[in-house]
Amino acid sequence: MFEFLFKYPLSIYRQGTFIFLAGWPLWLMGLGILVAAGALGFLIWRQASGTARMGVVRRASIWVLQTALAALLLFLIWHPALSVSTLKPQQNIVAVVIDDSTSMTTDDETSTRKEKAVKVLDGGLLKALQEKFQVRLYRMSDHAERIDKLDQLTANATATHIGESLKQVAADASSLPIGAMILLSDGSDNTGGVDLETLSEIRRQRIPVHTIGLGKETMSRDVEISNVDVAARALPESRLAATVSFHQHGYTGQKAKITLREGSRIVANQDVTLKAEGTEQVETVLFNAGAAGVKTLEASIDPFPNEENPRNNRVTRLVNVDPRKPRILYMEGEPRWEFKFLKRAVEDDKTLDVASILRTAPNKLYRQGVCRPGDTAHPQVNGKCTEMEDGFPTKIEDLFAFDGIIFGSVDAPYLTKNQQDMVKQFVDRRGGGVLFLGGKDSLSDGGWAKSAAADILPTTLPDRKNTYSFAGADVELTPEGRDSLITRIEEDPNKNVERWKKLPYIRTFQDPGDPKLGAVVLANFIPREGGGAKRPLLVTMNYGRGRTAIFATGGSWRWQMLQPVADMSHEMFYRQLLRWVVSDTPRHITGSTPKTLLADESHVRLRAEVRDKTFLPASDAIVEAHINGDGVSEQVVNMTPEPLEQGVYGADWTAPQTGSYIVEVVAKRGSEEIGKDTFTFRREDGIAENFHVEQNRELLEKLSAETGGQYYKPGDAQKLGKDINYSQAGITVRETRDLWDMPAIFLLFLGIRGAEWLLRRRWGVI
Amino acid sequence: MRLRTALLIVAVLCGCWGLLHAQKPFREYDTVEGHAESAIPPDANVPHEWTRARLMYRDYTGFGRFGFRRGGGSWTIDYPRSDRHLLYGVKRLTRIDSRAVEQPVALDNSDDVYNWPTLYAVEVGHWELNSEEAAQLRDFLNRGGFLMVDDFHANAEWGVFLEGIKQVFPDREIVDLPKAEPIFHTLYDLDDKYQIPGAQFLRSGLTYEKDESGRPEHWRGIYDDKGRIVVAICHNMDLGDAWEWSDEPEYPAEWANMAYRIAMNYFVYDLTH
């Protein structure tokens, strides 16, 4: 329609420059329009004055229409035209880039995308191009590769890097007269799109990239896992959550099964009902981390029988189950049932090591879990253990040897100002976790609001005493608590909420004040008597490199005593809470990589954060990464300091083949070893192309628009034969195209005259 | 009217259910020993973190058989004077936040006993447990409760105790506690323990009761599967009298002293294991 009305395709208007061929100055046209308007106004006013049927509004309407007609005539007299550059026939090259990745094998009902691309080219487009230009064919994967014939296309490349491929073709243009590029693709780029640098490079050479989009923009019947989020590290036997995000088309309301596998062993599965078409659905599947070691987990959704692309129903993730046993220091100010039952709840947890100091009498301490066998830092001397014999650690390195701290009913002044500051640094600098329990000497009643550690508390403590009540309170989860692993004592989230409602009431509670910004309330308590308002019971917060929590009761032991022996809710809650306290506490060395799964790529960035004994960044360390992989002999990579981050070291490495890799990072200062850490990553090929197989029309349109090209559907692709002539790249010649005879002007002329005639007829003044 | 009646019945039933499942308030019962009476402290109803419960049980001799839950019977021996003295000692000698008064509890198939995880039973050479009571006591101990028994002497009373405790734990062994057992070292190092006679010594001059098998004293216990003492057995001694008569000038202070130390250690052990 556009071309019918305006004589030429829209692309010419976009490429070309509008000009007037008459050569007269434009101001003269403006002046002519003004003179015509004045003259017409005068004549219309004179003729109509005295005619009752021609009022002011009617005269003005006639004047506007006639002035527009005069302006149109003047516009045509000035001879409007388009100046466009066109490619010189037979002197330019057109690069035809054809996506040759696996996604091109996707069957869009009538044919595969590769077949469709061949059909478009063989259906006349290639011949039309070859009549005017030299045509170069390229197959595109993670790079562009020249081919001679279309039958060299295989559609088995494991990656699509559009930007990289176009950049490569554009580089040819520096020595060849490439006038335009034609990209036939579904736009499924594995790098996430075309970067600005590539776009700038193509724009600089003024090469229009015309795109022909292949494939459905929306699948008819498909389920695709878009992401699986799972912790990269975990403690042995800990409960983990795999957050599976997916979307579907064609199966709304149907049941599907999410399965987590480690090898051939199913570790968890969950039935789900598929939500609305195209919307992102997120489901959490809980599973046990199992014994120490590197776990390759596959999350999958069982394919439906007629699913178009079953290859995007599974995703792999790595979990490094760390054999370490984090150590927690439990400081308790008085012998009480909460102390007893907390320790009993976690004593069977092989992943946690709890040492405790209990103030049994005003001048006596009772220590448990100290000087463990094999503890070289605290050997027993003549059968006597000296570890923490004077109470809470006074040296920062002694405190920082722990991964977490629990403060029971301990008043802040029991610790010196220096010890309070150490507790703050324990969270902020060391990255440890601290749990504060309710008690008669805890929180506000223990003077913590005015302590040096007040900042790390997840709530602003009330500015008063007597916040601890020996009265029963019921407990309910908040929406955040519903989703938290800490409070998950039943697998099913809804059953879990109900389970919490049925827990015996807690015997005591303490008002912890209001949550600070960034704190998360997981559970509230509701006093059973006196009509007290709902207050936060379990509050967590991240602070600095670490995390803190308040569990504002000393009476959760009733969950153990008032429920059957087989009920594990009390044990599970405390184990999960304490694991949360310590599971992310870093060691002196923390090794990592941004991506633990290299999908169709081989480059990996290694990173190590190195801290000294007091957990200050160590910038003078010698850091090495020892990399071992399946069938790859150990390689040692020297890591160098990152310029902008203190104590952080990095290195690039290329994984030579697919498989899992284990990296041990070792940091030394001279001959002294600061520490070591192990992490893993995995390289897999042939993965990326299975995902996002819908046509990415947005990317293709953007690419065309940014480069001066145009997006075509396969059915319209034959028009390219004409449109491609207009380009500023290659060897071009400037041409002018008349615009005065385009049908739109004729129709406009008729429209103005017709409108005046119709108005006059209506008013009876013809 | 019918609806109102139905609602009333439901409300009453809910109230009863709540009472059965809630912690019962403090109540004092009649004691079998007149001299053991003690004034209720003014702060008796002030709640605290901890108190020691006293087990109300049926006496095998028939003494107080039909009304033991209303007071009287062997379970009230030394009660409540002994308890009040002891709890005052707990407050003074430890950092346990103890209530001023004890909590008598019965194995009555309600949830009440589970609210008081530290339990003491006196004169268990006279107790009688039926199968339901034994099952509830077993359940109490398996959930994490702690039982200390005291003031029973010689072989005959040991046999009665054994009959009861074997109903609770048919397969668990009763063992002599070694000196190194942590229960003797939680607060005080009690390596040198000795028999603690009751107040009868003031009349008889004997440090033991019943017959020759009433000596020496036995520090025994029953462990759970994780090596924790869940039943602490003080046989051939009368700690209850020692606490009760600790303010009596004629009662030897060293015995009272040891009785208090034993109790403090046992309670701290319970609260740490």
Structural account:
The complex is a heterodimer of chains A (766) and B (273). Helices cover 25% and strands 32% of the residues of chain A. In chain A, α6 runs parallel beside α7 (196-204). Chain A is of the alpha/beta class and 766 residues long. Chain A has five domains: 2-86 and 736-763, no CATH class; 89-217 and 694-730, Rossmann fold (3-Layer(aba) Sandwich); 222-321, Sandwich (Immunoglobulin-like); 327-583, Class I glutamine amidotransferase (GATase) domain (Rossmann fold); 589-688, Sandwich (Immunoglobulin-like), CATH 2.60.40. By secondary structure, chain B is of the alpha/beta class. Chain B has a single domain, classed as Rossmann fold. Chain B is 33% helix and 14% strand. Chain B is built from seven helices and nine strands, in the order αββαβββαβαβαββαα. Chain B has a seven-stranded mixed sheet with strand order 3-1-4-6-9-8-7. The A-B interface holds A 333-337, 339-341, 343-344, 347, 356, 358-362, 364, 366, 368, 409, 439-440, 470-472, 504, 507-508, 554, 557-558, 560-565 and B 21-23, 47-50, 93-97, 111, 114-115, 117, 139, 142-145, 186-187, 226, 267-268, 270-273.
For the largest beta-sheet of chain A, the strand count, sense and barrel status come to: 9 strands, mixed
Give the number of helices of chain A: 17
Tell how many strands the DSSP assignment of chain B holds.
9
CATH first level of the largest domain in chain A: Alpha Beta
Pair of chains with the largest interface and how many residues each contributes: A-B, 38 and 30 residues
Low-confidence runs of chain B = none
Trace the largest sheet of chain A across and list its strands.
Answer: 18-17-16-19-20-28-27-26-23
How far from one another are the termini of chain B?
56 Å
| Main beta-sheet strand count, sense and barrel state of chain B | 7 strands, mixed
Broad shape of chain B: globular
* Beta fraction of chain A: 25-35%
Percent helix of chain A, as a range, is 25-40%
Mean pLDDT of chain A: 91
CATH A-level architecture of the largest domain in chain A: 3-Layer(aba) Sandwich
